[in-house]
């Protein structure tokens, strides 16, 4: 039995449950496996994620990948927050394989996070692997810790943004990004 499995058995007991009852016998194992998947971003290597899929291109116009869904866990309550991520960047001689944007998002979402930090980490990763002239990341999410418990607000949405390089220094670039993602 893994350490995490043992701890989940203790959590079940702590909740007043009987870890020996039939329906819960395999629950510590399942929960440990699920949580290991949901935090697998800690052991994900950015070079493996990108897998060399950075291609030479003389297209230096803005590229936008919109609506990448993500599932993360808030670091305060270990409850899910779920939403979408929009990424734009200005290539500087190299473009990144399309699917790699989603892989980068997952790499940072599959950790204990706060939305602000995750947004910044994604922007910095795109900047680093592409050497681009600028990058913008916008994330919008609903936090279960605000819906299922606590203030129990069902309709609020948190939107965070990070703009680097030209996206930060040039309002026209930022405006073009916003227009392209329909904001
Ligand atoms: N800024 C930010 N806050 C978050 C995020 N996820 C959760 N939180 C907030 O973290 C805060 C933790 O506040 P505490 O007062 O320490 O915890 P709490 O008593 O459980 O707070 P309530 O949720 O207000 O009941 C709450 O306001 C949460 O809404 C996030 O991604 N970003
Ligand atoms: Zn929370």
UniProtKB/TrEMBL annotation:
EC class of the enzyme, as a word: hydrolase
Annotated family: Belongs to the GTP cyclohydrolase I family.
Gene: folE
Name the record gives this protein: GTP cyclohydrolase 1
GO cellular component, one term: cytoplasm
Catalytic activity: GTP + H2O = 7,8-dihydroneopterin 3'-triphosphate + formate + H(+)
Any one GO molecular function term: GTP cyclohydrolase I activity
Keyword annotations: GTP-binding, Hydrolase, Metal-binding, Nucleotide-binding, One-carbon metabolism, Zinc
EC number of this enzyme: 3.5.4.16
GO biological process: one-carbon metabolic process; tetrahydrobiopterin biosynthetic process; tetrahydrofolate biosynthetic process
Pathway(s) per entry: Cofactor biosynthesis; 7,8-dihydroneopterin triphosphate biosynthesis; 7,8-dihydroneopterin triphosphate from GTP: step 1/1
Residues annotated to bind Zn(2+): 74, 77, 145
Entries under PANTHER family matching the protein: GTP CYCLOHYDROLASE 1, GTP CYCLOHYDROLASE I
Limits of the GTP cyclohydrolase I domain: 6-181
Assembly description: Homopolymer.
């Amino acid at each position: 039995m893994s350490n995490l499995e043992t701890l989940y058995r203790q959590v079940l007991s702590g909740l007043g449950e009987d870890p020996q009852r039939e329906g819960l016998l395999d629950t510590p194992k399942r929960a440990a496996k699920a949580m290991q998947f949901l935090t697998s971003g800690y052991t994900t290597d950015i070079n493996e994620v990108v897998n060399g899929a950075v291609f030479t291109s003389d297209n230096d116009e803005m590229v936008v990948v919109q609506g990448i869904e993500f599932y993360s866990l808030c670091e305060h309550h270990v409850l899910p927050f779920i939403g979408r991520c929009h990424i734009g960047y200005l290539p500087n001689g190299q473009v990144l394989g399309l699917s790699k944007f989603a892989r980068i998002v997952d790499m940072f979402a599959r950790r204990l996070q706060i939305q602000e930090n995750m947004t910044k980490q994604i922007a910095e990763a795109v900047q680093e692997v592409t050497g681009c002239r600028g990058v913008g990341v916008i994330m919008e999410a609903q936090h279960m810790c605000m819906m299922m418990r606590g203030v129990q607000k069902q309709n609020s949405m948190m939107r965070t943004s990070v703009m680097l390089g030209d996206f930060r220094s040039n309002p026209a670039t930022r405006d073009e990004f916003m227009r392209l993602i329909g904001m």
